[in-house]
Amino acid sequence: MRVGMILANVPFPPDIRVEKEADVLSPAGHDVLLLCRGNASEPAEETVGNVEVRRHRVHPRSSFARRLDSLRFLVTLDSPSWRGAMERLVTIHGAEVLHCHDLAYARSALRAGRNVGVPVVLDFHENYPAALRLWRRRTLDRILFSGHRAESLERESVRIADRVIVVVDEARQRLIANRGEPGKIVVFGNTESVDLVPAVAPPLPETLNLVYVGGIAPHRGLETAVAAMPRILAERPDAHLTIVGDGVSLDELRKLSEDLGLEDAVTFTGRLPKAAAMEHVIASTIALVPHLRSPHTEATVPHKLFQYMAFSRPVLVSDCAPLKRIVEATQSGAVFEAGSPEDFAANTLKLAANRERLLAAGKAGRAAALTDWSLESESPALVQLYDQLQNSRT
What we know:
Layout: E1 2-7, H1 16-25, E2 31-37, E3 45-48, E4 51-56, H2 63-76, H3 80-91, E5 97-101, H4 106-116, E6 120-124, H5 128-134, H6 139-144, H7 147-160, E7 163-166, H8 169-177, E8 185-187, E9 209-213, H9 222-235, E10 240-244, H10 250-259, E11 266-270, H11 274-282, E12 286-289, H12 303-310, E13 315-318, H13 321-330, E14 333-336, H14 341-353, H15 355-370, H16 375-393
Parallel strand pairs: 1-2, 1-5, 2-4, 5-6, 6-7, 7-8, 9-10, 9-12, 10-11, 12-13, 13-14
Antiparallel strand pairs: 3-4
């Protein structure tokens, strides 16, 4: 089946979820054709790995038409320009299904699918309405695309879509509780391929290196980790926290670190290429996912958790439901109370004090990343979804 993926108004590459899905679908005989945002310096069409890329620019010759389309999108949650590009993905480029990533352009995808007679799959990476309430956005965006309005769009979209993909079972249960049809909601997670797992587990450092990799925003809970460092250093002077990534609260985190006198104990690397970021993971003693609890973080799980496990790194995660469930099921680390520097510090020190426990947690995470919590173990759910859609059209 020729799968027309939609990453509307977002550039590609990179997008780790699109790449994973393409790597799963391509060997199973399904082609992935991606529609994404383009600019004048990029080719309109190219192939990146297993993804055939088609780039779209909204009215590149008319700033007035571009602003008008943006305004129409904010008012109606439907972009005529992107909807037309989605339809052409079918009529010109041969897509047999539209697979729309995230909620924002779901209405455009559903209308395009109806207009050209193909099924529509929605791929929800997170609880988007809840995320809107957390993100820092323009005043106009907050008014016209509020969390409440996004909830209405989500209910409408889930009802109309042919299939809905989510990343954890907690997200599936949330949609079902909101009257989503259980039979069309599929879980395909953010696990990593067994190819990421080294043949030999990297040795665990003797010093206490705490590492976080990912976006930097208030809901990520990194203030908790920084605030915990004085307590940790009091018992482990060799402790060091490295935060790899960039985001809206980076300056606030830097200031907090300075105010606490942690300039020598906390390093901010900024955003790094994936390979360089993974080198920091390999250098860690404990890898972190300190998310604050919220309706958003209770219904998603980040790729980084499985990347940590693949490299045999013991993990320390907050008690957000999916994180707690996975870490306890795999015995790959410890869980602390979200938002509590005291509990973060206590669990860090307890985990670090027992080297045998550290090694056992890393070994358990690696075993999970090679078996039940691997991309290969989750692949059948996504392949079966598209096999079913293909069979229903023949």
